[in-house]
Specification:
3 domains; Endonuclease, Chain A; Arc Repressor Mutant, subunit A; alpha+beta; 279 residues; disordered C terminus
Amino acid sequence: MRTLLEELQNFGLNQYEAKAYMALVSLGTSNAYQISKESGIPRARVYDTLDTLVSRGIVLMEEAKDGGKSYSPLPVDVFLDQAKQTFETAWNSVGEQLRSIEQREPKNAVSLTTVKGEENVVSFCRIMIRRAKTQVLLSMWEPMYEKLLGELEDKKEQGCAIKGILFDVDEPMAGLYKHRINEYINKKTEERWFVLSVDGKELLYGHSPERRGNAYYTDDPVHIFLLEDYIWHDVLVNRLVAEGSQEQLDQWILPEMEQFFGRKMLPDSYWTKPQREKL
């Protein structure tokens, strides 16, 4: 967990400035010697640190007739309100300028970017869903679906189509299918993945965030076509199985899958069951 000192530095203060403000909040009105002693700032640095804070309006200074100086902190609520306004102003300004650059500069080539970290992957997905205009296609497991459910429901209320398939979700929202459970796909499956495609224009896919693997973002039409097609075929097979007998079809589908890929994909228990001898 980040310390208060570290968090204050996110507000545009350096380490000495953050220490000085924290010391003043604790002490109240004080002189430079007391602030240096409380904060651990060297005496040689405390005066220029306080001068900087005074110039920024974060610390108030009063000078006595004898030339002595006393310092007071900007009240915490006022400091926080100013910091919030400064951040929001900068956020809006940077956002406008970056979007202007993004719209002005033509993209000459498709991109493929690696997204790392559970929070980053989930945040990236939320942003993609929020900017969807017509359609969101997805394939994912329950933990990730639950984290994105709010954004998906909001987008559906706005008239955006939500389609795809879910793993280990008992009651998916309308438009999403529940993937069947079999010997290959089960709740203990270690290889969990996700695909999220928005408006056929951008795609994020990779390991489910809780597995702490990487995800990949791209606007490459080939990637998008192939993985949207993958989602559709997965939905199609599950719908066909639902119309017939899952056990009967799986007895044919699963061995054919292993034979097609030419590698072991099913647990040994699948092949030791008596009924497999008839295949």
